[in-house]
Write a structure and sequence with these properties.
By secondary structure, this protein is mainly β. About 5% of the residues lie in helices and about 45% in strands. The strands form nine sheets. Strands 8, 11, 12, 14, 15, 17, 20 and 21 form an eight-stranded mixed beta sheet that branches. Strands 16-23-22-18-19 form a five-stranded mixed beta sheet, with no helix packed on it. A three-stranded antiparallel beta sheet has the order 26-27-28. Its main location: membrane.
Amino acid sequence: MNPKLILISQDESRYIDDARITVERPFIGDWNLHIRSVKYEDRGIYTCTVNTNPVYSKRIRLIVQVPAEILDYASTSMTVRVNEKENVHLWCNATGVPPPRVTWYRKEGIALTEYKKVGDEGQELIIKNISRHCGGVYKCMAYNGVEPAVTREISVEVEFKPEVRVHARRMGQYRGKETILECVISASPQGENYWRKGNNEIMRYSKLHSNYRTELYTEGTNRISLSLRIREVTATDFGIYTCQAKNHLGFADDNIELYELYHPTTRLPTTPPVIQTPAQSYHPDKSWRPPSNYDKPVSDGRNNEYHQHNTPSPKGSQGRYRKPDKYVTGHMGTGINDQNGVASPAPNMINCVIMAVLSACVQVSKRHGIC
């Protein structure tokens, strides 16, 4: 409707067939045009004319404000799937009077309840070289000062080929024990995930592999944990296991080796036993006699022992005693030279020689088991 070309009323009579429009005169000199439930089509210039001489008229521009509205057909769909490292264009086409401002936000936080502003204001948001960490829920909000503001959420799913990682390259276990092999798979979307041993795929539930069981746990966005539980390890279970994953973008795997552990064995002591020999008693040789030129020791009262010499004393020394000519001292005992200059074995020296021979015999028996 164009108010400039259409006659609405004259005096108190209404010439337009629109029940929303009436002429009201609260006072004799007032002529008020009342429009109820204003529409956007009601905008324009309205002229009030008074047939006086001269004619008096007044022009009024009616501006109709329209809240922001997001056009579905001209905006990005609610879900977008893109490959990693591609450029992404998100559209949020909004109209309104006055033209609305469009602001972009991204859901963040542990519970994904917080929104953080991203990019610049505008109807288009460009994400260049997108990574898996840039996926999530994006929201555009259009507002022009007229309540209410309108929003639209767009879920961006970044797809990438699988990545597989095992926690350890090698794992040891004893026979008869239960063990768990685990791998972490990152992929979008998740596809086929399974364990293999050699060329044989281990099914999740199979009579052929009743000793095995696979378990799947969600670790986070686009990440799962795939465990292989071996209930009772046998000799045939040791070897290389492979965790594999694939989707429409690619394939990945990783290996882990299960090896056998052995219980420690008890060994005999390496120190040879000690051979107990009966104590050897010493029996002195009773046939031994001191040299003929010595008598029994005689003390001079000052703790010195002298042996009496039977040969005639030199002149002026009769009745005197003198010390022995020479003593032979060793680490095993003490002997006295006889008259021929040969040391006579003392009793304690003989005993030490006997003990040394016995000690040597014991050492030989330890090494060779003889003697």
